[in-house]
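Please describe our next protein:
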Amino acid sequence: MTVQMLFRELGGKAMIKVMYNSMLSGPITHARNAIGNLSTMVLRPTAMAIGQAMSGDINAAKASISSLSAVVDSFSEALSAGGKAWSTGTPAGGAKFEVHESEVARGLELLKQGATTDSEKRAANFLDMLHTNAVLNAPTRALAAGDDFFKILNARIELKRQTMMETLSETGTLKFDPDKYAKIAQDKIVNGEVKDDGLLRIAKEQTFQQDLEGVAKQVSDLLDSNPLTKYAVPFVRTPHNLMVYAGTYTPGINRFLKEAQDIRSGTDEAAKAMLKGRVAIGYGVLATGFGFAAAGNLTGNGPADPELRKIWLQSNQPQSIKIGDKWVSYASIEPLNVMFAAAADLQHAAPYLKAGEYDRLVSQLQYTFAKAVFERSYMKGLQTAIGYLNPQTVGNVNFAREGLNALNTFIPFSGLRRQMAKALAPDVYEFNNELQASLTRSWPGGNYLSGAESAVDIFTGQRKIDTKDPGILFHFANQFLPFNISQDNSDYVIDKLGELQIDTRTDFGDTYKGLELSAEDRAGINRLVAQGNLHGRLEKLMRSRDFQRQLEEWKKTVDKGITAPRSEQLWYKSITRMISQSRLRAASQYASLPREETDDFGGRLQAARYRKQLQGKGRYDELINFGN
């Protein structure tokens, strides 16, 4: 292989490596990886014990639960294995994504030997730095270290269970024999590395590192073959394995998974018991989720409709459980996050059944499962990639936004920078262009550099806060911890708008009567909406006798099975009319303010109307001259 070919190959791999490390640099990524590995480690023997107890094998169930004590015994060994992965950058037995450290090392050595000119030598040293620098590669090394730590623990837990089961089989007594354990483990775990194929398979399953097969592998190979899709969907193995893992706990879905079918048709009785226990846990989680959601103590992903979701988010934190007056996120706990969210969203969708709104129910269910699959950091770019590759939708792709996102991704520590920026700037911002948005979201303090305008809440007139944190310390901590904590911000009007499914725009959009609104325009108009006491007037309306009577009559009608779309009801129209009139009144007031306070909003609005009139009359020459 020539020097030029080595430069191209190692340069391409270096760019992919920089992208991986940049995307995975956020502290939350590593915290969630650790929480996910911990939960799966505990759930495996627990599910196995439940399945064995359900089958009447109490001794086997005791062995499965007792095996968790191996965590204490092998903790130092697991730390050593994690430290080795951190220092070398090479995980033992596999990783969540492809790494070829040994191949790269050989290629770098050949490149340095073959570089003859000063420029070639500098380029070779630069590529070597990108591939081996401990700071730049810290994110992927940290993930590898965490995974190898849990691989050892999972392998030792399984070995301890096997030892107790062999002792039970030989002596009829359930006990742990250290000598037998040492003999069994002698050649299976060597120098902190799992050598036994069966144990390695379990360890990889528990850390979501199974090799892809069949259609999943074909999809992965297809994505890897295209640079665009490789950028948009860099990780396929982990999301696929996560979905399969969650599916094994989900009643109904469990029976259709190939992985579950292979276990049922196999001879491993412990694995069969584990599968049985997982389904039992799944039923319990779903039942608990429905109960908590019905009591208002559990949230899922929220409404599928964008406007309903905007209102819902003002008093709810997605994928959270209510503890006291706080909402605590469960999004990091696999696989409970998927099932709890599904239960809460199905509970939320229940009112659609009474109203006969079948289409909206189907839409909500599709949204729920789409969120479960795609609302993860490693799947963020999938829709964009599809948009680029599909001629029918490529026109809808925001090329400026995606281009800036791509540029940011190839600058080190994009994940860390985004979390720091959010920690330092908790507001929801209005933007005039994509560059302003990118600076604000991607760089700590970028909101000051870009001059971004804080969005204004039409109900309070105050700036919108991105999270409902109970204090500034919680807000900062939430950006780096896997369990987001927020205050319960229940509000009668906002809760009622969500409960009644009022599907209407509350904030101003990007345009008004043909005029493209600036971030300052939107904030100013929304502030005037709040000053007009929209919140107070809505509360007075909702508490009025006429409104309550109309609402009760409608509920009785739909309970009888009579179709009565809510959007056609007087109570619904009275709310949407009040919101619409408040918005229009505020825009008119904003236009009448002194021009220096609004950047001449009134004059810009008149000019937009005139341009629209000229365009409508086909007077394009005058339109061009007017623009000049």
Q: What stands out?
A: Residues 325 and 488 are 5 Å apart (CA to CA). The first strand starts at residue 189 and ends at 190. The chain is about 65% helix and 5% strand.
